[in-house]
Write a structure and sequence with these properties.
alpha/beta, N-(1-d-carboxylethyl)-l-norvaline Dehydrogenase, domain 2, eight-stranded mixed β-sheet, 11 helices, 8 strands
């Protein structure tokens, strides 16, 4: 199996995918961003440029470094453009059938050595890989939001993942400056097994009138040392995404704390999806990338 040099990111028009593309390109890898929507790709590209411009202004990188990183990034709406990638990371929404279909298509496009990675946070890597045609080269690679700022990656082998493929993917995460941890192929892995119920508890506290969202987030950040409040995090990942996490996680675990709170469903029904809609538990007047 060849060394990883070129990386494809599926779903790169979204917040997570755009962040993963930054991680790859910033570390010196060629990064090809794929999404079905040219509009979302254009928006992500603009946000990425803004993120690196702020990095220059803050003295974290030079103008030359900024141009070099952007020069390693490209975007496409043609899945076939990922044909010569050595690693393809999918960061699409949490739907098993859609992920399986994507990997099946990629299997017919990519070279035999290409490793497929799923950024799933709740679904089984073994199930995602099932029937794709290269089950031995599929790994779980769960980044944390925002990927361009957070270092942790939960790495999970499926039952059929080869040691060689897992090692190459692990080595790539280290080469990007990220910090991998190995987890079993179980729902929620480490973080979401703890965070999904916890975040739902926080939403229920809002619904019960314990305190307003800002004070709840402040209490948790100051009292527990969190860098980001749980409600701010939910706004960042999207309230609709939190529902999908619940719907993926709860049927497997049967933990009532993992079921979606009524307030969460009402807010999504009202279109209050978080940062991407301009309103969630907080309001936003800018669509700049987090950290920019």
């Amino acid at each position: 199996m060849t060394e990883i040099r070129k990386v494809g990111i599926c779903g790169a028009g979204g917040t997570m995918g755009a962040g993963i593309a930054i991680v790859a390109a910033r570390a010196g890898f060629e990064a090809v961003s794929y999404d079905q929507s040219s509009e979302t790709l254009a928006r992500a590209a603009k946000q990425t440029e803004g993120f690196f411009t702020k990095s220059v202004e803050r003295g974290k990188m030079s103008d030359a470094d900024r141009e070099a990183v952007l020069g390693r990034m490209s975007s496409t709406t043609d899945l076939a453009a990922l044909a010569d990638c050595d690693l393809v990371i999918e960061a699409i929404f949490e739907n098993l059938e859609v992920k399986q279909e994507l990997f099946g298509k990629l299997n017919n496009i990519c070279a035999d050595h290409t490793i497929f990675a799923s950024n799933t946070s709740t679904l089984s890597i073994t199930q995602i890989a099932s029937g794709c045609g290269r089950e031995d080269k599929v790994v779980g690679m769960h980044f944390c939001l925002p990927a361009q700022l957070m270092k942790l990656i939960e790495m999970s082998p499926g039952l059929n993942t080869s040691d060689e493929a897992f090692k190459l993917a692990w080595n790539w995460t280290e080469a990007t400056g990220q910090i991998p941890v190995k987890t079993q192929d179980k729902p929620g892995f480490i973080l979401n097994a703890l965070l999904v119920p916890f975040n739902n508890d926080v939403i229920r506290a809002v619904e019960a009138g314990v305190a307003d969202p800002a004070d709840i987030d402040k209490a948790i950040k100051v009292g527990l040392g969190y860098k980001m409040g749980p409600l701010e995090l939910i706004d960042l990942i999207g309230l609709d995404t939190q529902i999908r996490l619940c719907e993926s996680f709860y049927p497997v675990t049967l933990d009532p704390r993992a079921s979606a709170p009524p307030l969460l469903r009402r807010m999504v029904a009202a279109g209050h999806l978080g940062r991407k809609s301009g309103r969630g538990f907080f309001t936003y007047d800018s669509n700049a990338m987090f950290g920019a």
